[in-house]
C-alpha cells in the first residue's frame, strides 16, 4: 500500500467547500437551535400545564428519535404532507435546529433549576417581575454553569451534521465521498477528512476550556 | 403616629396544613415589632405574607391605608403586576442574604432601583453609595459578594432593600445563619435603622435585641398571636405558660450575674 496525497490535494478546494457548508449547517442550527431551546426550556418550566406538556413532548420526541430518521422525515415526508419545496440545506437546518434545541432545552432547564431558590426570592423581594428575574438574575448565572454542557453538545452537533450527506447536501462528508470515487483514493481522502474534523473540534474544545478557566477566575465557573 | 400596616384575619394554609389561623395586627409608622415563637409557630410565614412572598389564603392587608388586591366573590384576588409594585415598597432581608453573586456590591444595591424603579444610573449609584455608607460598607462597593464575610453580606442585603426607599422593612431571622461574633454588627445596623424611624417587623431569636430595640413584641403560637406587649413587661413577666417555657428554653444557660 502506497500513500499518495497529491491526487487529493489537487482537489482540496472541493473539501474546503464541503467544510464551509458543514460550518454553515452547524452555525445555522446553533443560531436557531439555541433560542428555540431556551423557549422550550422556559415553556417546560412554566406552571401552565398545557404549555409545559407540549414542550416536554417536543423535547422528549426529538431526543429519543434517531437524527437520521428526523432528517429523512423532513426531507422526504414533509413535502408530501404540506406544499413545501425542500432543499437539502433547508431540511438539514430545520432538522438540526429542532433536534439540537431539544438537547439545549434540557441544558437550559438544568442550568435554571440549579440556581438556588434564594436568588428568586431576593429578586422578587425588590419587586422584580418573573421576566426581570429570569433575564437579570437567573439566566446570567445559569448560562455560566451551562457552558461546558453547551460546548459538548455543539461538538456533538458538528459531528452529527455528517448525516446531511445522505440527502445530497454538499457538506464535508459528501465532498469526501465524491472525491474518493473520483480519485480512487479513499484511504487518503478519509484520512484527511478525519484530520480536518479532529483539528476543528480540538481547537473548539481548547477554546471552550479557555472560556471555562476565564469564568473560574470570577468565582462562578465550573473549574476550581 | 399614623398607621402604616394593617392586617385583618390573616390565614395561610399549605395544603391541609393551616399555618396561620387568623392574625390581626396594626403597625404604626416608626414602630419596631419583633415576632417571637418556636419553629413552626407561623412567624416567618406571617412575615412572608406581608409582601406576598406567600399569598394569604384569607384575610386583608392594607399598606398606608390602601387595600392590597381586589375583593371579588368573597375572596381576595391579586394581580402579579400589583404584587411586584407592592414588593418594591416593602424591603425584605433574608436569613441567607440572597445577594446576587454575579454582581458587585454596588450593582446589587443599584439593581432594583434601575430595573424596577426605573431610576437613572447616576442617581441609583448615588443612592446606593449613600446606603452602603449607612451600613458602613462604602469601601466594599467594587467587591463581589463572595469576598465578604457573612455579616458584611447581610449589611449589603440591608442596603439593597433600603435603596428602594421602602415604607416598611421585614427582617426574617437575619442573624440565624451568622457566626456568633458577626451577629452584633448586623443587629447594630438594624438598631440604627429603628432609631432613624424606620418601620420594621423582625422575626428573630435574639431576645436581647427584642428587649432593647422593639416597641412591641408579639409571641406567636400555632398560628395565632398568643401574647403581645411592650418588651420590658412581656419578656420579664409573660402571661401564658407557653411563652414562659419558650423564654426559659432560650435562656437556659446564662453567665452568672
Structural notes for this entry:
The complex is a heterodimer of chains A (224) and B (257). Chain A is mostly helical and 224 residues long. Chain A has one domain (6-217): MetI-like (MetI-like fold, Orthogonal Bundle). In chain A, 80% of the residues lie in helices and 0% in strands. Chain A contains nine helices and no strands. Chain A has helices at 6-10, 12-45, 49-64, 67-81, 88-113, 117-125, 130-160, 172-183, 186-217. The radius of gyration of chain A is 21 Å and the shape is flat. With 257 residues, chain B is α/β, with parallel strands linked by helices. Chain B has one domain (3-250): Rossmann fold. Chain B is built from nine helices and twelve strands. Chain B has a six-stranded mixed beta sheet with strand order 8-9-10-3-11-12, with helices on both faces. A four-stranded antiparallel beta sheet of chain B has the order 2-1-4-5, with helices on one face. In chain B, a hairpin with a 2-residue loop joins strand 1 (3-14) and strand 2 (17-28). In chain B, 44% of the residues are buried. The mean pLDDT of chain B is 93. At the A-B interface, helix 6 and helix 7 of A face helix 2, helix 3 and helix 5 of B.
Amino acid at each position: 500500500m502506497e500513500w499518495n496525497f497529491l491526487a487529493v490535494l489537487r482537489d482540496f478546494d472541493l473539501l474546503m467547500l464541503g467544510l464551509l457548508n458543514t460550518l454553515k449547517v452547524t452555525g445555522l442550527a446553533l443560531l436557531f437551535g439555541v433560542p428555540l431551546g431556551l423557549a422550550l426550556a422556559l415553556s417546560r418550566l412554566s406552571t401552565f400545564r398545557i404549555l409545559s406538556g407540549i414542550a416536554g413532548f417536543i423535547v422528549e420526541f426529538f431526543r429519543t428519535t434517531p437524527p437520521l430518521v428526523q432528517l429523512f422525515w423532513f426531507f422526504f415526508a414533509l413535502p408530501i404532507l404540506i406544499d413545501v419545496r425542500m432543499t437539502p440545506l433547508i431540511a438539514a437546518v430545520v432538522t438540526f435546529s429542532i433536534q439540537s434545541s431539544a438537547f439545549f432545552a434540557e441544558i437550559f432547564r438544568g442550568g435554571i433549576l440549579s440556581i438556588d431558590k434564594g436568588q428568586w426570592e431576593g429578586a422578587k423581594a425588590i419587586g422584580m417581575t418573573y421576566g426581570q428575574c429570569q433575564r437579570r438574575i437567573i439566566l446570567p448565572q445559569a448560562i455560566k454553569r451551562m457552558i461546558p454542557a453547551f460546548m459538548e453538545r455543539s461538538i456533538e452537533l458538528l459531528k452529527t451534521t455528517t448525516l446531511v450527506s445522505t440527502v445530497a447536501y454538499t457538506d464535508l462528508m459528501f465532498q469526501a465521498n465524491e472525491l474518493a470515487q473520483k480519485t480512487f483514493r479513499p484511504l487518503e481522502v478519509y484520512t484527511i477528512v478525519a484530520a480536518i474534523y479532529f483539528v476543528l473540534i480540538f481547537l473548539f474544545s481548547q477554546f471552550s476550556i479557555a472560556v471555562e478557566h476565564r469564568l473560574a477566575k470570577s468565582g462562578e465557573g465550573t473549574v476550581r | 403616629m399614623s398607621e402604616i400596616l394593617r392586617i385583618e384575619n390573616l390565614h395561610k394554609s399549605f395544603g391541609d396544613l393551616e399555618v396561620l389561623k387568623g392574625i390581626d395586627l396594626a403597625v404604626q409608622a416608626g414602630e419596631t415589632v419583633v415576632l417571637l415563637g418556636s419553629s413552626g409557630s407561623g412567624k416567618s410565614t406571617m412575615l412572608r405574607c406581608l409582601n406576598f412572598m406567600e399569598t394569604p389564603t384569607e384575610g386583608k392587608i392594607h399598606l398606608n391605608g390602601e387595600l392590597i388586591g381586589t375583593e371579588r366573590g368573597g375572596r381576595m384576588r391579586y394581580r402579579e403586576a400589583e404584587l411586584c409594585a407592592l414588593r418594591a415598597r416593602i424591603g425584605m432581608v433574608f436569613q441567607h442574604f440572597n445577594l446576587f453573586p454575579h454582581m458587585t456590591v454596588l450593582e446589587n444595591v443599584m439593581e432594583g432601583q434601575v430595573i424596577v424603579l426605573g431610576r437613572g444610573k447616576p442617581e441609583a449609584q448615588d443612592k446606593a453609595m449613600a446606603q452602603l455608607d449607612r451600613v458602613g460598607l462604602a469601601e466594599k462597593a467594587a467587591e463581589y459578594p463572595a469576598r465578604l464575610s457573612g455579616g458584611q453580606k447581610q449589611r449589603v442585603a440591608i442596603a439593597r432593600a433600603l435603596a428602594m426607599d421602602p415604607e416598611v422593612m421585614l427582617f426574617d431571622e437575619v442573624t440565624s445563619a451568622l457566626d456568633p461574633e458577626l451577629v452584633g454588627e448586623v443587629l447594630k445596623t438594624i438598631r440604627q435603622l429603628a432609631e432613624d424611624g424606620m418601620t420594621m417587623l423582625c422575626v428573630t431569636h435574639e431576645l436581647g435585641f427584642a428587649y432593647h430595640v422593639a416597641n412591641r413584641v408579639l409571641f406567636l403560637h400555632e398560628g395565632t398571636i398568643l401574647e403581645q406587649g411592650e418588651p420590658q413587661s412581656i419578656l420579664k413577666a409573660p402571661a401564658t405558660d407557653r411563652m414562659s417555657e419558650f423564654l426559659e428554653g432560650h435562656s437556659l444557660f446564662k453567665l452568672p450575674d
